[in-house]
Amino acid sequence: MDTDLARERILDAAEDLFYARGIQAVGMDVIRDASGVTLRRLYQLFPSKGDLVEAYLARRDSRWLQNLATHVDTVAETPQERLLAVFDWLEDWFTQPDFHGCAFINSFGELGGTSPQVAALTRHHKDTFHAYLRELTTAAGAAADTGTQIALLAEGAMTTAAISGTPAAARQAKQAAQLLLLTLDTRHVAFPS
User: Fold this and answer.
1) Can you tell me the distance from the alpha carbon of 19 to that of 175, in angstroms, rounded to the nearest whole number?
2) What is the longest distance spanned by two Cα atoms in the chain?
3) What does each C-alpha distance from 98 to 49, 103, 120, 141 come to in angstroms?
4) 8 A C-beta contact, residue 101 and residue 158
5) Pick from 7, 67, 77, 70: nearest CA to 37
6) How many Cβ atoms are within 10 Å of 75's Cβ, its own excluded?
7) Which of 17, 25, 56, 111 is deepest in the core (most CB within 10 A)?
8) Confidence (pTM)
9) What is the pLDDT of residues 12-57, one digit of tens each?
10) CA 139 to CA 131: how far, in whole Å?
11) Which of 50, 48, 57, 43 is nearest to 7 (CA)?
């Protein structure tokens, strides 16, 4: 098996297992069995479990953000629709049978206090996601601070959906984002004297 294929099989297995069960609950032998790659080859490609966790999070970061941006670019036309499409994408993600919350929040909760690499990868992911939301928000005519508030709505929706097991948090966060944008619109309206 060539290196690229072995690496992908290992990362696929690690992503499925770490996301579903948690990082600490999954040993390298379980990943070996799920990937069909020998333990020797696994350790050649990822010398430690920490290396594998870092590769898993880096790949998930790239894929998650790309999938979100593709959805927004595909379904929305106006700047406001683009921003609100984020919450539609979140709602769809929350309804997936394998949804277990945000992989980065989960990983940080497990390892953020003991693994500077996990903490850094989580911060990077969240910083990139929040910057994307601020970009969409400013394109919709709102202040960057409003984008930060909308990012907090999205983060809260992720956590609430994971705990509650229902996608309703995405719709509620979308409604709150609409209210923030509406408040912005009414501040620019000239009221008759």
Assistant:
1) 29
2) 78
3) 23, 12, 25, 36
4) yes
5) 7
6) 12
7) 56
8) 0.91
9) 999 999 999 999 999 999 999 999 999 999 999 999 999 999 999 9
10) 12
11) 43
